[in-house]
Design brief:
mainly alpha, 2 domains, binds zinc ion
Length: 378
């Protein structure tokens, strides 16, 4: 290894260093997560007009408790960051935590001044990003470590930073994406609402309403998704989702903004026209978020008994498979019944050998250039 390569390895997060207890890895991970969480919440409080999500207003209701929590988080992040940088040759994790903590402290730390009305006219959901990242990583990272399909694949695998940028952008733009998802239906399809159904479906018990909603939404999603695969102009947008060569919970975030808005916008049309209740839609959005993440996860569970009825990781991994027989298969997100009806179901009883784009497709490898890619002349 040359001196330059050695230096590079020192700050890179893609590491072959040990991850066991005592190696500084666990303290480094905890320090980074707590540091990002602490800084995110401090920023949200300092600039609520820019960074707080309306739906999370209740999160700030007990401000004195929140301040105490921030205090503990920042101190823990700093101490863990110091431990990690002492124990570990690769300083990136520990330094991430320390730097985030110091910036948070400069902004006022746990005593930060609240700079406006929380959840009002804010365009960016920084608090939504922070909470989502904490919740998802707390659930999925241990799951993928304990039941990995590919145990050799590290948490910080190749291009994890690209997918984290997608996770960040999709979360921080949550209000904007929701606006563009819902408005077309409100404006164009108000007259198409079937009054009888709106009155009937919307008043059914959730236990009946939610499964119907999932099946209807998945039918719409199935055809939009399939259209994205068939029309070359649209494929340029969707190819970005398929460019991920490693599958894990974060890989599912890799979605072009146009792909996300068009897919969600079209899927929302039947949901709106059929008049499902607000609570049913809320449950649906929650389930989509969980299932769409889970089906990308690096877990080896096969769910053989239910795999014909409920979309599983194996089912969606085959949608991303780089083998010829996997092309244009398994379009559904919730239930494979639509793939089985329309002849695109593929479950050979094993896992794909590789993922990603087939052929000489070479996509740029950062968020911004991938956003521009579909608009460039090929
Ligand atoms: Zn696809
Ligand atoms: Zn996918």
């Amino acid at each position: 290894m040359t001196e330059k390569q050695k230096k590079k390895a020192h700050v890179s997060l893609e590491t072959t260093e040990p991850m066991s207890f005592g190696s500084g890895f666990i303290s480094g991970i905890l320090s980074s997560i707590l540091g990002i969480f602490g800084l995110g919440i401090v920023l949200s409080l300092r600039f609520p007009n820019y960074f707080t999500t309306e739906e999370l207003t209740d999160f700030y209701s007990s401000i004195s408790i929140l301040r105490a929590v921030i205090h503990v988080i920042l101190i823990s992040s700093f101490i863990l960051g110091c431990i990690s940088t002492i124990l570990r040759a690769n300083k990136a994790l520990g330094l991430t935590g320390i730097v985030c903590t110091l910036i948070a402290a400069l902004l006022g730390g746990s005593q930060v001044e609240i700079g406006g009305e929380i959840g009002e006219r804010s365009a960016f959901g920084l608090d939504y990003f922070v909470l989502s990242l904490i919740l998802y990583s707390a659930v999925f990272i241990p799951l993928e470590r304990l039941w990995a399909l590919r145990p050799e694949q590290a948490v910080f695998r190749r291009e994890w930073n690209v997918d984290l940028t997608y996770f960040f952008m999709n979360s921080i733009l949550v209000e904007v994406l929701t606006f563009f998802t819902l408005q077309p239906s409100f404006i164009l399809f108000d007259g198409a609402r079937i009054i009888y159904l709106v009155e009937t479906l919307g008043s059914l018990p959730l236990i009946i309403q939610v499964p119907i909603l999932l099946i209807v939404a998945d039918l719409a999603q199935y055809w939009i998704h399939r259209t994205f695969h068939v029309i070359p102009f649209l494929w340029n947008f969707h190819a970005i989702h398929h460019s991920a060569e490693m599958m894990d919970w974060l890989a599912g975030s890799r979605l072009h903004l146009v792909d996300a808005v068009v897919t969600r916008g079209f899927t929302y049309i039947p949901i709106y026209c059929l008049g499902f209740s607000e609570t049913a839609i809320f449950v649906y959005v929650f389930l989509v978020a969980i299932q769409a993440t889970f089906i990308h996860a690096n877990v080896r569970w096969e769910f053989k008994i239910i795999q014909n009825w409920i979309a599983t990781p194996a089912f969606h991994h085959w949608h991303h498979g780089a083998e010829p027989e996997a092309i244009d298969k398994n379009f559904s997100v919730h239930t494979p019944i639509w793939d089985r009806i329309f002849g695109t179901y593929y479950m050979p009883g094993r896992w794909p050998k590789a993922y990603g784009l087939v052929g000489d497709h070479k996509l740029p490898n950062n968020w911004l250039t991938q956003m521009i890619y579909p608009f460039k002349k090929k």
